Amino acid sequence: MADLSVTAGAMTGPRGQKPKRALSPTNIMLYGTLIVIAVYYLIPLYVMVVTSLKGMPEIRMGNIFSPPMEITFQPWVKAWSEACTGINCDGLSRGFMNSVYITVPSVIISIAIASVNGYALANWKFKGSEAFFTILILGAFIPFQVMIYPIAILLGSVGLFGSLTGLVLVHTIFGMPILTLLFRNYFSSMPEELFKAARVDGAGFWSIYFRIMLPMSMPIFVVAVILQVTGIWNDFLFGVIYSSNELYPMTVQLNNIVNSVQGVKEYNVNMAATLLTGLVPLIIYFISGKLFVRGIAAGAVKG
Amino acid sequence: MVNSIEVKDLTLTFGSVSVLKNMNLHVQEGEFIVLLGPSGCGKSTLLNCLAGLLDISDGQIFIKGKNVTWSEPSERGIGMVFQSYALYPQMTVRGNLSFGLKNAKVPQPEIDKRIARAAEILQIQPLLDRKPAALSGGQRQRVAIGRALVRDVDVFLFDEPLSNLDAKLRSELRVEIKRLHNQLGNTMVYVTHDQIEALTLADRIAVMKGGVIQQLAEPLEIYNRPSNLFVAGFIGSPSMNFLKGRTLDNGRAFQFGSTRIDLAGYEGGAVLERDDAILGVRPEHITVSTTPLAGPSLAAEVEIDENLGADSLLWLKAEGTTMSVRVPVEGRLPPGTKVHLGLDIPKASIFDAKSEQRI
Ligand SMILES: Nc1ncnc2c1ncn2[C@@H]1O[C@H](COP(=O)(O)OP(=O)(O)O)[C@@H](O)[C@H]1O
Ligand SMILES: [Mg+2]
Questions:
Q1: Most buried residue, A148, B44, B136, B303, by most Cβ within 10 Å?
Q2: Which of residues 60-79 of B touch A (CB under 8 A)?
Q3: What is the extent of the structural domain holding A34?
Q4: Is B45 in the pocket of ligand 1 (CB under 6 A)?
Q5: Is the complex ipTM higher than 0.85?
Q6: Domain end among B184, B209, B234
């Protein structure tokens, strides 16, 4: 009797791969929420893009959601090379170059120093290295508004106030705590025996850093580059305080264009200018998004 | 005979915790020493001190008669093999083998020669141009051994080199390490928590506990005459049976519960009369019989029997104490059987329960 029922169940019962229902309530909830959130973030971007491609007359007609009837790139050209920021009328191009001159050295120098810091703190512990690390991390929690004025005086006293060099120095120093933490945690998560093996093999501080550690830590370098490029490129406060008119970074110039009081508000030019300013971080994210996530995950394994 | 490694009064503390305590160790040239002990007893720490990877707190270390206490790891004439293999992942096998030699500025022809020799000894020639990720665990460990080999050093340090391998590979590589030792004649210091590895590989075993060497002796000596309760219990699987009781008649007999065991033929020191003594007998030094025995024996009842394939293990209860006995498979008995256990007193150990030392 019992045998029979088991056999019957085996004939008709579930077998093989479990079927998946595409429109299950869970899926509807999940994808519904995701779509709503995506739309929420995409609509402003959409409005900016279409507005930047319209002429002023069309904008005055009022519907910000309607696609452009006649596509024009004039606002982009103007934003890049003609818009006025009070004194100059050469658009964002000058600010773009300034931002490049600020961001590139700041990113390279801060990452170079912080990675060596992190490596030393993770692998070459010395007396007081933990205390040093703690102090450095505390630095990340001090609100930097507190330091704005002292730094201005310091920069002034060494003759770097209002120069690109001064601004690069400020960015490098302010990036140090978080970057050092990032690198230290990453290097601490690497197998210690690898480091020991290299020492037995007669490799020294720099040799281990360049030959063993660097080749293994590309993901965390990508993370650091993204953090620094976006952070420094998007910086407004330090740029407006520690540089001067001719040397303003792109963000400050964007502000000056958008907020310039003379004449009519050219929404299309403002939108184009904003998009242009955001382009660099955006491109960085697109290129390295996957690496970014992988690096963050790797760095978070062990503290 | 020259001492290949000499450790004098070595002490190492991490903060306030002392991990190695006033340790002394002499290793002769060509000797295979195994550091054996439970996890956390300081084996790796001792090995790292020998290698110069840890700064010691006090004492001296000599390798080949040279005081290397303050020397860099690469200057000590040692090669080291790690549990996790620790191969440089971005380099090929050849790159891994040559890294240390290049750092030491060994000329290229010499590097090639040494790699070829190591590759031949370890049979890794076909792997030379592969990256570590493309190797199996056993192959990786061979390469790691090769990295120590090409350094052409007198002393090899192994830190649990086989612990990450599966059982079959482990026994294969164990034999290979033994063969390597016979072939090269280097001094080897080998850390493990696996007593089979220790017993099969070692010329001498240093059993460690709590940062102190408990006994340093040849494997058979450790097995047959453990110097204290810890060593006796740690070596052997299943563990030695410990019978708590007292000695009588000026050490001629042992009172275990209501049983009196004759100690004639015991090969230790003067047993004398002790109120707190422990008689240790290994499971393989006990015979089981269903009829009363003439020699020193003990009544017991079978609780469980485990078939191990080659032989079987009987777990019994005698005088309220659980005991294990190794018997041939034919000797298996059903639970509840009343039996007599014959004790091989010449192979037994008697410990003072207070000092835990062998008498
Ligand atoms: N860097 C360290 N700081 C503090 N304590 C340590 C450190 N390294 C090891 N220890 C301690 O030293 C003891 C011995 O460790 P180890 O030599 O690794 O043991 P094992 O015998 O398992 O190899 C352990 O109790 C461990 O907690
Ligand atoms: Mg260990």
A1: B44
A2: 72-74, 78-79
A3: 23-72
A4: yes
A5: yes
A6: B234
